[in-house]
Each structure stands twice: as structure tokens, then as C-alpha cells.
Design goal:
30 helices; single chain; mainly alpha
């Protein structure tokens, strides 16, 4: 079939001369103003505040301290069922119980060597003199004579404090956990360094393990391994393994590809390339990973006192619960001394060969004979400590420790008598002006309103994926049955993080703009990161008493060093030419900081916020020991009161969800800021 299309007739042109039509003026271009993320965030907060004023107190899901949900009761039933069938269930008989037995035997063996008398002996196999000798010799062998003197002085000081056995119990648990952790972590790290596929698989698990606060490991492990040193050691090695895996993988990947290709061209097998090229060239970085593992293990061992781990942590926990500041300070000081010694020894070990080459000392030629003589002296000290009581039991009764405790108590009394006005005013200003209003906004708003706000903020700041993560975490938080306590912990965490960022901006910008300030402050910040979280609670307990504000201030001091260093590095990495251009354009110092350096370092600022949040969260929940309440209290109560075990387990899960939500949103925001 043919379709005929008729053409429209053209209008006839008017007769006469043609007229040129004047050009029509172009329509004005209306600029499209993009809505910034900050404006959207402000809009979400305004809507939240308006709805909060209307709906305050409705659908808050508040739960009393002694009340339980069906999930909590189910957790209690599972715990009771496992306890009743532990010795008959094949999974426990041939798997969990066997693991617990192996770890128990390892811990018992090391304790029998240095801390606890084995059967048939009144003292350990190696007494204090032998331990001090071994510490000095090992420090000298892997480091240098200065580190050896530090190790000898540090271990001797532990005995003078009257905490020799507690310190050796802590050391025994740390050594056990680090040994098992490295047994798995180094091979896994090598595998991740050699295989891109395995690295992609293991990285999310490592991120998850490092995101979780230390408290969270304890409750589920007691379910399978009971309360005691075995659970404490397993929790410690799980917490301490990720740094070694990650840093070992990074070390293997950092070996120049040309070096590996040269080994391949010479006919080296993969095994030979690994043993002769990759591992030797990455040894220094791997030792740094060992250092981080030891520091993480020591921090975790002290917190594991909540599940009956022996050692210094148990002394600190008991003293904190009875508000005995002097005893807590003495034990906390011992933890710091041990941390410094272990940190310095492993740090010196990572750079010993390079430092020796640079020094060119004539004693290097005598090093091997001197090490042989030192080994002989150490063997004599070990024999004496094994044979004689005077060399096995530390002499004295800890007079220095009692003096330290009395000084701490005196300082506490003086601070409470003379500084209470200042400290109370500061505490009340932050509590009433910032913490209480924000906590009320979170806990008194309807749960669905808070959830919608968190999801919206996740989408705006981190993108759709972060919003989806926030939605999943909010849904699971509802399921835990501790929504109100989660919001209380969230309020304390956000307030502490804001204070961390204020402190981080002030000192970070100062350090980033002045190398002299950086050289002065950075060693102090490095030392502050060595100390386990427990230690931070003690001085602030003396200043502010057992309140939630104590946990916030301790979290501020605990998290500030990492935020300050990240911000300082971000400010310093701003190109100097850009700063000089701004200076030549007439900008003053304030304008250069606010208009140039901070905007160009916004990815570092977001990363600092991410790390600050994670550090603060882990410290705020530890503050449950000193009156912080909320999720931290729920976890602690779950260990001490059997009927609240299920609620404590749910609280631990809620802490994980908060940590994952914080981490994913802030990491996504950091990536978007750096894009």
C-alpha cells in the first residue's frame, strides 16, 4: 500500500521589497544554583528539630535497666543451654573445648615460667632476677644498649611498685596472645601481599575487626570459651592480629617490582623469591607490624580483666569500681611502663641494622662476642632465680608503689578541695550546654525520626551506599532492644568527637604550619597513643568523679592524638606554592588557614573525624566502669549479673553497629572529599 503525504502549502510572500527581520534578543540565562551538602544537612537538622518539638517523648523505645526483651531472654537461654551441654555437644567437645585447652595450657606454661608457681614449687621457674636479665639481654640483642637499660629499669620499677606478679601475669597473657596471633597473622599477611584476590577477600574482615571496640570481643567469646585466661587470650589475639596481617601485606607489596623481576629472571622459584627477596626486604616493616600487635594485645589484655583475666588490668578494674584512685593510678602507671618498654624494644628492633650501619661504631666488630658473653651472664641470672628464693621473689614490699598511691590520693584530695569549682564549672558547662540537649534530642525523639535523620545524613555525607549501611544498622539497632541506651552512647560519642575535632584543629593546624611545634608535640602524641585506654580513666576520675563526663574527657584525651597528627599531616601536604600565592595576594594568616589550607586538607579532616569517632566510641563504652552508663554499663553488667548476660550481649552488638555506621559514613565522606 502506498501512502501519499501531502506537502503543506507555503504562505505566499508579500509583494514589495524584502525587509530584513531584526534579530530577537536572547532569553536571559537563569543560573542554576546547586544546593550544597551543607545546606541539605542543615535542612535535615531543621526538620528534625521541628518534629522533635511536636513529637517529643513519643515512641522512644526506652527500656529500664532491669528490663529485658525477647531477644535478651533468648540470648540468656542460649547461654544456659550451652552451659548445660558444653561437655556433651560434639562441637564443644572436639572443637571449642580443645581450642580452650590448648590456649589454657599455653598460658599456664608461660605463667609457670615467670609469674605463677607451678606444682611442687613455691616460686615460678624463672624469678625476677632472671626475667630482668632476659629482658635486658633480648632488648640489647634486637635493639641497642640504651633500650636494654630502659628495659632493665622498667622491669625493676614494676617490682618496686609492689606489682611484680600482676605485671608478669599481664606479660604472660600478652606473650601468649602475640605468639598465637603472629603464628596466623604473618602467613596470612604474606598471602594477602602475594594474592590480590585474597587481599580483597580479607580486607573487609580486617576493617570490621579493627572497627569494633575492644569491649565487643568479650561477651561472645565467653559464650564459647567461658570466663578466664583462655577467653582473655583468644579475645586479645583476635583484636591484635589485624595490624600484623595488614602491615605484613603492605610490606610485601612495597618491595620494588624490578627486584622481584630480577629474581625471576635468575631462575628463582616462588619459594626462593619469598624467602630470599620479599621477606628480607620487608623485614623492617613486618617488625613494625609486630610492634602494633604487641601494643594492641597489651591494651586488650588489660580490658580483658572484665572476664577474669589476671594481671594489672584486674587491679585497675577493682580499684575503679571502688573509686580507689591511688591504687588505680599505681597499677595504671605500671601498664604505661610496660607499654613504653615493649614499644621501645620493638621500635628499636625495626631499625637496628640501619642505625648500626649509620653509626659506624668500632664496637660493631665486637658485637657477636659481647652477645655471647651477655648470653652467659643471662643464663647465670636465670639459674640463680630458679634456685634461690632471694633471686626469685622481688625484694621489698613495694614501698614505691605505696608512695605513688599515697601521692595520687593526696593529689586527688587536693584537686577535689581546690579545683572542684573550676572542674565542676567546666563539667556543668559542657554537660548542660551541649551533652544534655543533644542527648535529649536523640533519646526523646521518636525512634523513626532519629532513624530517618541518620539515614538521610548518611546519604548526604557519604552517598547512597553509606545511606544503605546506615539504614541496615538502624534496623538492626532496633532489633537489639537497647535503642535508648544506644542513643545515649551516640550522644556522648558525638559530643566527645566534636571536642576532639576542636582540639585537633587547633593543635593540628599549629603543628602543620610549624615544624618546630611538630618536633615538640609529636613525641608526646606518640607516647599518648601507646597507653592503653584504661589508663586515661584514672586521672579524670580524680578530677570529675564517677560521671559520664569522666568518660567523655578521657575519650577526648585518648582520641585527640590521632586526630591532631592526621590534621597536621593534611595541612603540611598543602602545596607550598599555593600558600605563597595566597600570601602574595595579600591574605593574612587567618585567611590562609580558613580559605586555603583547611579547604585543601578537607579529606584529612574527614579522615581525622573517622578515626576520632572510632577511638571515642571505644573509650566511651569503657567509661561504663566509671558511671558513663548506657551501652558500656550494659556490657559490664552482663559480665557480672547472669540474668543480664543477654542484654550485655545485645549491647555489644549495638556498639558494633554504631561503629560500623560511623566508619562507613565517614570513610565514604572522606573519599568524596578527596575526589
Amino acid at each position: 500500500m502506498t501512502v501519499v503525504v501531502e506537502k503543506p502549502e507555503r504562505p505566499e510572500k508579500p509583494e514589495g521589497p524584502e525587509k530584513t527581520q531584526a534579530p530577537q534578543p536572547a532569553a536571559p540565562v537563569v543560573p542554576v544554583r546547586r544546593v550544597s551538602r551543607s545546606m541539605v544537612v542543615a535542612g535535615i537538622l531543621v526538620v528534625w528539630l521541628v518534629l522533635f518539638a511536636v513529637l517529643r517523648g513519643k515512641h522512644t523505645l526506652a527500656l529500664a535497666a532491669a528490663d529485658l526483651t525477647d531477644l535478651h531472654r533468648w540470648f540468656n537461654d542460649v547461654n544456659d543451654s550451652i552451659g548445660a551441654n558444653r561437655n556433651s555437644n560434639p562441637l564443644f567437645l572436639y572443637f571449642f573445648n580443645e581450642i580452650r585447652l590448648v590456649i589454657d595450657n599455653l598460658v599456664t606454661f608461660i605463667q609457670g615460667l615467670i609469674s605463677q608457681p607451678p606444682d611442687g614449687r613455691p616460686v615460678p621457674q624463672i624469678g625476677w632476677l632472671g626475667v630482668v636479665g632476659i629482658a635486658g639481654y633480648v632488648s640489647w640483642a634486637v635493639g641497642n644498649w640504651r633500650v636494654a637499660l630502659l628495659a632493665v629499669a622498667g622491669f625493676t620499677f614494676l617490682g618496686l611498685q609492689g606489682l611484680w606478679q600482676q605485671s608478669m601475669d599481664t606479660l604472660a597473657l600478652t606473650v601468649s596472645a602475640v605468639f598465637v596471633a603472629l603464628l596466623f597473622a604473618i602467613p596470612l599477611g604474606v598471602w594477602a601481599g602475594l594474592s590480590d584476590r585474597f587481599n580483597r577477600i580479607v580486607t573487609p574482615f580486617l576493617d570490621f575487626m579493627q572497627t569494633m571496640p575492644t569491649f565487643v570481643y568479650l561477651a561472645p567469646l565467653t559464650l564459647f570459651f567461658l570466663i578466664g585466661p583462655a577467653s582473655a587470650t583468644i579475645a586479645t589475639l583476635i583484636y591484635a592480629a589485624p595490624p600484623a596481617i595488614r602491615i605484613t601485606a603492605h610490606a610485601i607489596r612495597s618491595v620494588p617490582a624490578t627486584t622481584v623481576e630480577a629474581a625471576d629472571s635468575l631462575g628463582a622459584t616462588r619459594r626462593q623469591a619469598l624467602l630470599k627477596v620479599l621477606l628480607p626486604m620487608s623485614k623492617r616493616t613486618v617488625v613494625m607490624g609486630v610492634n602494633q600487635t604487641i601494643m594492641a594485645a597489651l591494651a586488650m589484655v588489660t580490658i580483658a580483666a572484665l572476664i577474669d583475666a589476671p594481671g594489672l588490668g584486674k587491679t585497675v578494674v577493682t580499684a575503679l569500681q571502688s573509686l580507689d584512685v591511688g591504687t588505680a593510678f599505681n597499677a595504671g602507671l605500671a601498664i604505661v611502663v610496660m607499654a613504653i618498654v615493649l614499644d621501645r624494644v620493638t621500635t628499636a628492633a625495626s631499625g637496628r641494622e640501619e642505625a648500626a650501619r649509620r653509626s659506624g661504631s668500632r664496637f660493631l666488630t665486637w658485637r657477636r662476642p659481647l652477645l655471647g658473653a651477655g648470653a652467659a651472664v643471662t643464663a647465670v641470672l636465670v639459674y640463680l632465680s630458679h634456685t634461690y628464693i632471694w633471686a626469685a621473689e622481688f625484694p621489698g614490699e613495694g614501698g614505691i608503689g605505696r608512695s605513688v598511691a599515697r601521692a595520687a590520693d593526696t593529689a586527688t584530695t587536693w584537686a577535689q578541695d581546690n579545683l572542684s569549682g573550676l572542674t565542676n564549672a567546666f563539667r556543668d558547662a559542657i554537660t548542660n550546654g551541649l551533652l544534655n540537649p543533644f542527648q535529649s534530642l536523640l533519646t526523646d525523639s521518636p525512634w523513626w525520626l532519629v532513624g530517618a535523620a541518620l539515614i538521610g545524613l548518611g546519604v548526604v555525607l557519604g552517598g547512597p551506599r553509606a545511606g544503605l549501611t546506615a539504614a541496615v544498622c538502624v534496623g538492626l539497632l532496633l532489633g537489639t532492644g537497647v535503642w535508648s541506651d544506644s542513643m545515649t552512647t551516640l550522644a556522648s560519642t558525638v559530643v566527645a568527637t566534636v571536642l576532639v575535632m576542636v582540639l585537633g584543629l587547633g593543635f593540628g593546624v599549629w603543628m602543620g604550619r610549624s615544624m618546630r611545634v611538630d618536633r615538640i608535640l609529636r613525641p608526646t602524641l606518640d607516647a599518648a597513643q601507646v597507653m592503653p585506654p584504661f589508663v586515661y580513666l584514672v586521672p579524670f576520675l580524680a578530677l570529675f568523679g564517677a560521671t559520664r563526663f569522666t568518660a567523655i574527657v578521657a575519650a577526648l584525651v585518648y582520641a585527640a592524638p590521632v586526630a591532631i597528627k592526621i590534621i597536621a599531616d593534611g595541612v603540611r601536604n598543602v602545596p607550598q606554592t599555593t600558600v605563597e600565592a595566597a600570601t602574595s595576594a595579600g591574605c593574612n594568616t587567618w585567611q590562609i588557614i580558613t580559605k586555603v589550607q583547611l579547604p585543601m586538607a578537607r579529606s584529612a579532616l574527614t579522615l581525622a573525624t573517622n578515626q576520632g569517632l572510632i577511638y571515642v566510641l571505644s573509650m566511651v563504652v569503657v567509661g561504663g566502669l566509671v558511671g558513663a552508663g548506657a551501652l558500656g554499663y550494659d556490657v559490664v553488667a552482663g559480665f557480672s549479673q547472669g540474668q543480664l548476660y543477654g542484654k550485655g550481649l545485645a549491647a555489644g552488638l549495638a556498639i558494633v553497629l554504631l561503629g560500623v555506621m560511623f566508619d562507613r559514613i565517614t570513610q565514604a565522606a572522606a573519599r568524596r572529599a578527596g575526589a
